[in-house]
Request: fold
Amino acid sequence: MGLSKATFAQTTEEEAEVLYENAEKAYDSKDYAACEIALVKCIQMLGSTNPKIDYLRIRNLDDEVTDDVSKVTLDNYTLLQNAIADFFQKVNKSTYPEEKYKQIIAIKLAIPDLLSHYQQLQDLIKNFSMVYVEGGSFKMGSMNAVNGYTMQEHRVTLSSFYIGKYDVTQAQWKAVMGNNPSNFQNCDDCPVEQVSWNDVQGFIQKLNQETGKHYRLPTEAEWEYAAAGGNKSNGYTYSGSNDINSVAWYKDNSGNKTHPVGQKQANELGIYDMNGNVWQWCQDWFSADYYSKQPTENQQGPPSGSLRVYRGGSWDLAARHCRVTGRWGVDPSSRLNYLGFRLALAN
Reply:
């Protein structure tokens, strides 16, 4: 014998109430995704929403985008606006708790500013300035190689690619990841630092999801070719000049801190800060002699290793450590206040 309509409705309401209580618990523990899932199931079970559900859903969506910048998406704002619209269609101001009503009004009034902020974040994410580097052959390394920390000179051939005009900045990192791990804070245009190679892979994954592009770190060969000026190279010791003060922030002029990107002279390709300010992660595993022994076309580095390559020198080092050919390796989990990165993109 089946349930009566009244009994069925009562059972449904009881099950929906359990779902709502689960949503409240998820919200209190800041598990915003679980809260939203429970509320959607609750609405589906009841066949409609109600002011109690709308109120919690609005608070949940608003707190989610407030707590995590990476959740600032147009879809989430659309959900928020729809929930607010449903709320005001059902609520009678004179009978609804005044404090809760004012909270929803405040969230509604803030949405235009939030959407403007969202668009600014999208502009930051999408407008990474990239420089086209025409492929070619060049002599990588130096005749004065030392213990693998400057490679023995050898010829390398590369296909064309794009590389970041600037190091990735703190503002760009915040736009993608929702935090700023840098030691040198309060400088949105300074390069982000204290990010590990592993952290950078997470950044790139999120950035590619947001943009639909295929950003990556440059290979070590790409990095040196671009730093040297590509096929426009004048053979300078530093990227863009033999005078380090004109192109780099280093120990003698940095004031013991990083500086906003792009303040020094660019190199022959129009790329800034390839030397000094912060070292830059490369994609490759570090090896002392891999490059001198392997095929010279589009080298990707060793297939495995324990250290990742970083290049370029930094704000705390003497000029001799900031040459185009200088290199180093460190554990990919390391977070250092002199180590950042720039992006690359396949042609």
